[in-house]
From TrEMBL:
Gene3D superfamilies: Amino acid/polyamine transporter I. One of its GO terms (molecular function) is transmembrane transporter activity. One of its GO terms (cellular component) is plasma membrane. The chain crosses the membrane at residues 21-41, 47-68, 88-112, 132-151, 158-180, 200-219, 231-254, 283-310, 331-348, 354-373, 385-404, 410-431. Coiled coil: none annotated. It comes from Marinobacter pelagius. This is Amino acid/polyamine/organocation transporter, APC superfamily.
Length: 451
């Protein structure tokens, strides 16, 4: 590692194997998605929620194309930040969208942390006071922070171990749940008011949140062995695995709980679905997997997020203050990330955290595809129709989601818009100032590219 005092970030090229990379991706995807989103999606789309998962998978498949193309061309540990930089240079769109991605990843951590709290409290008969869920969430983030300070091998080891247990456990849950259910026929007859197109698109947008873990794979680009082949493969395998698992779990939940029950227990619907099927042992089993899944997801996510912010800092795209802290930039960005996650976890509930995450993520995703379409198509040898389709699908999902939220919880859309305006203005000021001081941030950004 050399002296710890220098302010650069250290990456280990070729330290992640293909199975390790897939575990990292599915680990983040399954951690966030399945435990809390199943109920949230059912609330929005009614009985069509297993189909919303499939619709989300289709959108994500189109999305993944741009990421695979760029990461094949330039594998990088900074992932998204670097992709945006390739498309938009040292300008506002790069910094703005990279920060949206950063915040959406921090939001995902808070989402995982709250989910961890909601499930854990099921062992103690729920959280009447509403105080324990944020407290547990905050403790989990702090624990993950400490493990992250211990370094790379530790994270991969812990994440892989948890990943295997979790995916095995969720498969058992899905298979047993479907097996025990009185009848596999899910009642699609009464969509109710939720049957509208807007609600289905909104639910699909939430579903995208369950798959967005594949971007973790692109963020660990240069650390993957033989990245030009394996990053794309890992993404495809992860998405495919998640489609199978989500569909299975969706049917297990839908065939063991009525729609009203799913909505009522939306923060911990898998534990609730295990109760009629498997009794208290089922609940314990499900809660144990949920705790491992969310904990593993947070570990992997804090790792990727702090890494990305470190890269943006090195590219001189975001202001950075050491606040008097010793050590490398990546250690500092780790601290920022954790503090931000703690604040969100303490003060926002699950559906609002998810809403912020999805708005930020989709806006950023559209910018990536536009960058490929408009600036990078020749460089990465991409065909035009795939990113174009991805943009249209993203806009549909985002439009549907915003529409639903404007009707049910306009506050959260207000927060999202305000946050984006603040980020844009702050970044514009920072970039203008930085340009004035006459430093060109260009030399330092070239370091990570493969020579």
């Amino acid at each position: 590692m050399g002296s710890e005092q220098d302010r650069t970030s250290h990456y280990q090229e070729g330290s992640l194997t293909l199975p390790g990379t897939v575990m990292l991706g599915t680990g983040v995807m399954i951690g966030a998605g399945i435990f809390a989103l199943t109920g949230q999606m059912a609330q929005m789309t009614g009985v069509l929620f297993p189909l919303a998962f499939l619709a989300a998978a289709v959108i994500v498949a189109f999305s993944a194309y741009s990421y695979i193309k760029i990461s094949n061309a330039w594998p990088s540990a900074g992932g998204i930040g670097m992709y945006l930089h390739k498309a938009y240079g040292n300008h506002l769109p790069t910094a703005f969208n990279a920060l949206l991605m950063y915040f959406s990843m921090v939001i995902a951590q808070s989402f995982l942390a709250r989910t961890f709290g909601s499930y854990t409290m099921q062992l103690f008969g729920g959280d009447e006071s509403g105080r324990m869920v944020p407290i547990l969430g905050v403790s989990l983030i702090l624990g993950a922070f400490l493990i992250n300070l211990l370094g790379n091998q530790m994270i991969q080891g812990v994440a892989s171990f948890i990943g295997i247990l979790k995916i095995g456990g969720i498969l058992v849950f899905g298979l047993v749940g479907v097996w025990i259910a009185d009848s596999i026929s899910v009642d699609f007859s009464a969509p109710g008011e939720a049957g509208t197109v807007g609600n289905f698109l909104g639910g699909t947008a939430l579903g995208i949140l369950a798959f967005k873990g594949f971007t973790t794979i692109t963020n660990s680009g240069s650390e993957v062995k033989d990245p030009h082949r394996n990053v794309g493969r890992a993404i495809v395998i992860s998405i495919a695995a998640c489609v199978v698992i989500y569909t299975l779990v969706g049917f297990a939940v839908a065939s063991n709980l009525s729609l009203a029950e799913i909505i009522e227990t939306r923060d911990y619907s898998l534990a609730a679905a295990a109760r009629p099927a498997l009794g208290e042992y089922g609940v314990w089993f499900t809660v144990a997997i949920a705790m491992m899944a969310t904990a593993g997801g947070i570990l992997a996510s804090i790792f990727a997020v702090s890494r990305m912010l470190a890269m943006l800092t090195e590219m001189k795209l975001v202001p950075h203050s050491h606040f008097g802290m010793p050590g490398t930039i990546q250690k500092h960005t780790l601290v920022y990330t954790v503090v931000l996650g703690l604040v969100l976890t303490a003060f926002f509930d699950l559906s609002r955290i998810a809403a912020l995450g999805i708005v930020f993520y989709l806006v950023m995703d559209i910018a990536i595809h536009w960058g490929v379409l408009r600036y990078l198509r020749a460089d990465v040898k991409a065909s035009a129709w795939v990113p174009a389709t991805a943009i249209i699908l993203d806009m549909l999902a985002l439009g549907g989601f915003v529409w639903v939220k404007l009707n049910t919880d306009p506050f959260v859309i207000g927060v999202a818009v305000t946050a984006m305006v603040v980020i844009a203005i702050a970044e514009q000021v920072f970039l203008t100032r930085f340009a004035r001081t006459g430093e060109s941030g260009h030399e330092s950004t070239q370091v990570h590219h493969h020579h």
